[in-house]
């Protein structure tokens, strides 16, 4: 089992502080640092900076959505960063949602076809191949090829997935599936479906990457505070709210959404109870040992890489995250 860290959730980390935290995460034994994308700091910029200050920790995008840049542009970025980092890039891709697509002037449609074509082009670019792609969604024109021979023409590419079709696609074409906001039972379902899809096309097992958000404080109610904020967002967001309902939380999601409609975000947070939180993929912990114990069911469900997005509960956020990283490094491996 590989345990990774994400420094992104529910707080603003100054960019320069993130690079220092990645150095500390490498020393603490985390396998990879992952950085997400929405309207926060840019993943590729930050992991490029981290690559220059580290030597062994892998560097991942979780998740770079496909609407922010052309597949050729991302291929150029990824190939460059592979050379810079010594082959440490883990490229996580996703189709995002209608809101994010609109931010970039895109239209959220045909997600399966978009994901497949985008990934195919990125891989060809990274490999240094000549690219003349004519798909149903994406085209590259004629005679594109990197001007240099990449040192690492192969990189792992993961696909974020929740529903049956996208997770089957991940099993068929990607190096693994990236799962967010899933309980152990849901992870087991997705892992089984993804691995079956891989096997059906003659592939071996692929990675199953799960995310469980964590906060750490000696006062459990303080640890809950920021996690409640993050969970409220997912309960009112497209796709994730549907996924939570599918996992058996219909009444809970409805209560949060009704509170949001009638009283706004603060009211919605108040409607998200401790009992509900304790059944979701978050850990409001009072010790690192508790964090590690609470992650065990996800590992048993089929996760092969466990990403721990740390959610700070105090300011400065980087100092809070630093305390968590130090505590993790001092503990024994789970």
Write the layout of secondary structure elements.
Blueprint: E1 2-6, H1 15-28, E2 32-35, H2 43-53, E3 58-65, H3 71-85, E4 89-94, H4 98-103, H5 111-126, E5 157-160, H6 164-173, E6 176-179, H7 184-200, E7 207-211, E8 213-216, H8 220-236, H9 240-246, H10 250-271, H11 274-277, E9 282-285, H12 288-300, E10 305-309, H13 317-330
Parallel strand pairs: 1-2, 1-10, 2-3, 3-4, 4-5, 5-6, 6-7, 7-10, 8-9
Quick one: overall form? globular
% residues in beta strands: 5-15%
Helix coverage percent: 40-55%
Detail the poorly predicted runs. none
What strand order characterises the main sheet?
A: 1-2-3-4-5-6-7-10
Describe the structure in your own words.
This protein is α/β, with parallel strands linked by helices and 334 residues long. It is 50% helix and 15% strand. The protein has 13 helices and 10 strands. The protein has helices at 15-28, 43-53, 71-85, 98-103, 111-126, 164-173, 184-200, 220-236, 240-246, 250-271, 274-277, 288-300, 317-330; strands at 2-6, 32-35, 58-65, 89-94, 157-160, 176-179, 207-211, 213-216, 282-285, 305-309. The strands form 2 sheets. An 8-stranded parallel β-barrel has the order 1-2-3-4-5-6-7-10, surrounded by 7 helices. A two-stranded parallel ribbon has the order 8-9. Helix 2 links the parallel strand 2 (32-35) and strand 3 (58-65). The chain is globular, with a radius of gyration of 20 Å.
